[in-house]
């Protein structure tokens, strides 16, 4: 199933060029009145922050101080419903930057005009350029989700994936062009994150990262991205997989080197990750089919609660080596491999070289079938 429907990902703050920020948001949304509310949500190193304001005769306001400019979501609840209960959010992305940020909308804030500083101007330019593809992706997703449950089958999923892949490829052209022509703004770093998707390939994102100015790359968010880029280079196709050791549920250290000589799938997952749990039956199927043919799996859990991890292993019948340091997204192996979204996997050959990545659904069994058929053919030809 397509990544945006089936991938859990880490949400980290987008922190911009270091500077003290005093922001004031003055908003107007038509003639909305109480109990309508506006919510402002953003994330810092300390966690998620949500601020709220009552809308009176269409008007609302927010103000605050931050150590750095950052990305935020402005959400409108027309009936004053609690943010967590909102089923369909009327929202817009903006950047909390120094000075006044004017938000003006006649009905929906998602169509609002924003009058603010350079960051918001650049973001609006990018948003407008991406709008055709955003609409196409939204329409494709709506079409799929509107299908009756019995029709949301494997064939429908493949058609959805094919359609959205094509849209995203066209979107990448626009993103790359924006990054090259706006190399001095942190908005381009966000564009690069979108360009790379859930599973960035260093060979694709590094040339664009190198286009960014020194100021952008030396920002907190830029430095963080640079570190991830180094991890992605270490786990590129054809690279020797970084070695590691981590404990299993009994406290025994399991090393990647101990699997040398076998095809091994390093499978990153977690008990709390719905997409991972839905993927597990496919992984179990591949394991049962090829476990006696020099293939095994090493599961790396991004859990933080031991009992939940062990229960999921048992419930999903994951009868292969499982390790975790219970550090959630800061799992040492996940950090080493630059994992920012799960489920995610790496297939290694008997020499420890990465030969495939992110084999979901039937792609894992298909890849293994291809490997063993090629191996059998090679042996036959050598006779």
Automatic annotation (TrEMBL):
First and last residue of the signal peptide: 1-18
Report the superkingdom from the record: Bacteria
Membrane-crossing residue ranges in chain numbering: none
**Keyword annotations from UniProtKB, A to Z:** Cytochrome c-type biogenesis, Disulfide bond, Isomerase, Redox-active center, Signal
Q: What is any Pfam family matched here?
A: DUF4369
Biological process GO terms, please?
A: cytochrome complex assembly
Enumerate the spans annotated as Thioredoxin domain.
Answer: 235-377
Q: Which PROSITE patterns match?
A: THIOREDOXIN_1, THIOREDOXIN_2
* UniProt-recorded Gene Ontology molecular function terms: antioxidant activity; isomerase activity; oxidoreductase activity
Q: Name one GO cellular component term.
A: cell envelope
Where's it mainly located? other
User: Any idea where this protein resides?
Assistant: Cell envelope
Gene3D superfamilies given in the database record: Glutaredoxin
Entry's PANTHER family?
Answer: THIOL:DISULFIDE INTERCHANGE PROTEIN DSBE
Report what the protein is called: Thiol-disulfide isomerase/thioredoxin
């Amino acid at each position: 199933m397509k990544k945006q429907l089936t991938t859990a990902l880490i949400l980290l703050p987008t922190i911009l060029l270091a500077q003290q920020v005093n922001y004031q948001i003055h908003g107007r949304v038509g003639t909305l009145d109480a109990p309508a509310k506006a919510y402002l949500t953003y994330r810092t190193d300390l966690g998620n922050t949500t601020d709220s304001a009552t809308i009176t005769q269409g008007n609302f306001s927010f103000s605050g101080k931050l150590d750095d400019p950052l990305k935020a979501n402005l959400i409108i609840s027309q009936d004053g419903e609690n943010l967590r209960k909102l089923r369909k959010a009327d929202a817009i992305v903006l950047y909390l930057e120094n000075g006044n940020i004017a938000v003006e909308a006649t009905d929906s804030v998602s169509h609002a005009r924003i009058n603010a500083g350079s960051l918001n101007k650049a973001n609006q330019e990018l948003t407008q350029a991406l709008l055709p593809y955003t609409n196409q992706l939204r329409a494709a997703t709506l079409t799929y989700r509107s299908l009756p449950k019995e029709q949301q089958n494997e064939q429908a999923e493949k058609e959805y994936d094919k359609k959205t892949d094509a849209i995203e490829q066209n979107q990448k052209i626009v993103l790359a062009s924006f990054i090259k022509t706006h190399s001095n703004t942190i908005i381009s770093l966000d564009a690069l994150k979108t360009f790379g998707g859930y599973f960035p390939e260093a060979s694709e994102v590094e040339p664009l990262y190198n286009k960014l100015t020194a100021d952008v790359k030396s920002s907190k968010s830029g430095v963080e991205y640079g570190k991830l880029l180094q991890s992605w280079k270490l786990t590129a196709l054809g690279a020797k997989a970084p070695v590691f050791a981590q404990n299993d549920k009994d406290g025994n250290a399991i090393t990647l080197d101990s699997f040398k000589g076998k095809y091994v799938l390093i499978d990153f997952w977690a008990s709390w990750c719905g997409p991972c749990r839905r993927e597990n039956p496919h992984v179990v199927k591949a394991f049962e089919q090829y476990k006696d043919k020099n293939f095994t799996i090493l599961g790396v859990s991004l859990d933080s609660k031991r009992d939940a991890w062990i229960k999921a292993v048992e419930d999903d019948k994951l009868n292969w080596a499982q390790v975790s340091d219970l550090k959630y997204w800061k799992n040492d192996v996940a950090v080493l491999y630059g994992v920012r979204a799960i489920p995610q996997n790496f297939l290694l050959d008997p020499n420890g070289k990465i030969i495939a990545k992110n084999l979901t659904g039937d792609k894992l069994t298909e890849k293994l079938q291809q490997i063993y058929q090629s191996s059998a053919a090679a042996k036959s030809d050598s006779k």
